[in-house]
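Example 9 (inverse folding). The structure is encoded as follows.
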């Protein structure tokens, strides 16, 4: 099972990063449903909308990307942001230089990580978030 940060999902949708093709293949080969934070869909829309406002995407491209996002969202499993995730996010913000949304992403993944057994794979292209994920004992796929 892999946890997908919004940076990896956006990369797959926009095909901007060199890793996009590899991540797309990884996503399509996923044996179980991809797991994401409850904030992922909104973070992805935010990234797409920002590029539209900047003139890097035109309205038809945006609509096509939103359709792709809807298809992905229909199959992924979301981790709800309940008390346990909020507690983890609060701790993460105190020990790692993360933004609030990134802390929620990482906390959502950590909330699913079993105490025993192999760690969950964390798929992300955010280098700062990946550093925090590694320090928390996760296996990171993508980025540095």
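The amino acid assigned to each position is listed next.
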């Amino acid at each position: 099972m892999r946890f997908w940060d919004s940076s990896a999902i956006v990369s797959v949708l926009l095909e901007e990063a060199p890793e996009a093709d590899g991540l797309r293949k990884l996503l399509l080969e996923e044996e179980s449903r991809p797991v994401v934070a409850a904030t992922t869909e909104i973070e992805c829309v935010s990234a797409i909308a920002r590029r539209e406002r900047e003139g890097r995407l035109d309205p038809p491209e945006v609509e096509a990307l939103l359709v792709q996002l809807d298809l992905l969202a229909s199959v992924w499993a979301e981790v709800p942001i309940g008390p346990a995730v909020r507690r983890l996010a609060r701790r993460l913000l105190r020990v790692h230089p993360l933004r609030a949304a990134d802390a929620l992403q990482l906390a959502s993944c950590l909330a699913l990580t079993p105490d025993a057994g192999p760690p969950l794979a964390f798929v992300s292209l955010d280098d700062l978030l990946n550093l925090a994920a590694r320090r928390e004992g996760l296996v990171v796929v993508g980025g540095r």
